[in-house]
Amino acid sequence: MKGFVDKPSYIVELLEGGVTLEDVIDGHICEQALVEKSAFVVGDLGALMRQHVCWQSAVPRLQPYYPVKCNSSPAVIEVLASLGLGFICANKTEVSLVLEHGVPPENIILSGVCKQLAHIKHAAKNNIQHLVCENEAELSKISRVHPGAKLLLQLTTEAHAAETSMAFGFSLKSCRHLLEAAKELGVQVVGVTFHIPSSCQDLQQAYTHALSDARVVFDMGVDLGFNMNILDIGGGFTGSEGQLKQVESAVRPLLDAYFPPLSGVQVLAQPGSFYVATAFSLAVNVIGKKVMNRHWDSLTPGVNNEDTEFLYYMNEGVYGPFSRKLLGNCIAVPSVHKHALCAEEEVFPSSLWGPSLDQLDQVVERCLLPELSVGDWLCFSNMGVCGLEEFSCLSSSPQLPVYYTVSTCDW
Ligand SMILES: *Cc1c(COP(=O)(O)O)cnc(C)c1O
Predict the structure, then answer these.
(1) Which of 96, 120, 276, 287 could staple 384 via S-S, CB 3.0–4.6 A?
(2) Of 222, 251, 274, which one is at a domain's C-terminal end?
(3) DSSP states of 261-311 as a string?
(4) Best residue for ligand 1 mutational test, from 62, 69, 193 (most atoms within 8 Å of Cβ)
């Protein structure tokens, strides 16, 4: 194992000959055990490359545009930029970050349905032409400060509205009106974007509606003289190959019918979680422990009966790297470091809490774990969807260390 400095901002450890990610986590746990036992993050850059290979073989027609908000660590941006991905940026800061990594402006889309004027100007100044738009107020802002923009109109989908309980995008009803307004203002419309979240239960139905609606918008656009050539089918890819194949089998026949390759329409997608979710793991330390019975009376520690429930406190919680929990996402039960559970070992109802002693700071609700001790380490996998800022500024320690690795075979 040897480390090398790749960029002043982060260090990537190259894993040689059979050294695994678990070994790396072990190593850092040993180091931490000697100091403060602070939580830390391990990022496996090889996972990004493996996901890219999976994407390209499963959905070769879908050009991946990575939404920066999913995880904006410089190492992630650098690897994805070198793999040739496009980027979806929600604001000026994200645009600057991506440009700094040498991404050409034509591979960047400024998303967001309500954008600050200064951010639209910044896009214009940096030759970023592709902007998302869904309403007239936005249209008139764009026509004033970025008249050369090429717009992707954000079409609403039921699945997206259901997830956010907010109406995102324009409906088919208002479509002609919006296109005519663009025409009047002299702003080009070049395509349509929509989003179907991974929580959607009926993918087939959702994509059928969205793609046939998109076709209607394309036809209207062409009617009005626009050169409609970009279709963006959004995100909603969890990261599992099985789910990607499900989306593919829902989408491909529809694309072949409505937007066949010969139509010359470029088809994009926005895989965010898909690329980063599995690439990051978080190790946290157990800093406190309480034993309760079902009636929430304290029991003598170690008493072992079926009423026993353990509460464990960890050194990070929802005001740090588990902020996703506050947004209603479930955090999966962690593995216990260096603990292979044997069949006859007893497990207990347990819950995992952050350090704030705040009611909201429950990271994992009731789960079954062997009895832990203060000082034990827990490893949470699938922690990649979260900005690096969240790894640092909100957590109890001033900056959570992030250790990047890549194995020689991925390299
Ligand atoms: C967050 C986001 C996505 C993708 O997120 P997934 O978790 O990959 O579905 C896609 N597009 C936009 C505009 C987003 O904000």
Answers:
(1) 276
(2) 274
(3) GGGT-EEEE--SHHHHGGGEEEEEEEEEEEEE-TTS-B--TT--STT-EEE
(4) 69
Rounded to two decimals, the pTM is 0.89
- What pLDDT, on a 0 to 100 scale, did the predictor assign at position 9? 64
Q: Ligand 1: does its nearest atom lie under 6 Å from the Cβ of 355?
A: no
Nearest CA to ligand 1 atom 9: 236
71 lines ligand 1 (CB under 6 A): no
Q: Whose CA is nearest to atom 14 of ligand 1?
A: 67
248 & 138 share domain: yes
Indicate the range of 206-215, 376-385, 393-402 predicted with least confidence: 393-402
Contact 97, 76 (CB under 8 A): no
Position 301 scores a pLDDT of 55
> Could you tell me if 345 and 246 lie in one domain?
no
DSSP 351: E
Atom of ligand 1 nearest to the CA of 236: 9
Q: Looking at 274, 302, 319, which one is the last position of a domain?
A: 274
Tally of structural domains, the chain? 2
pLDDT band, residue 5 (cuts 50/70/90)? very low
CB of 315 closer than 6 A to ligand 1?
no
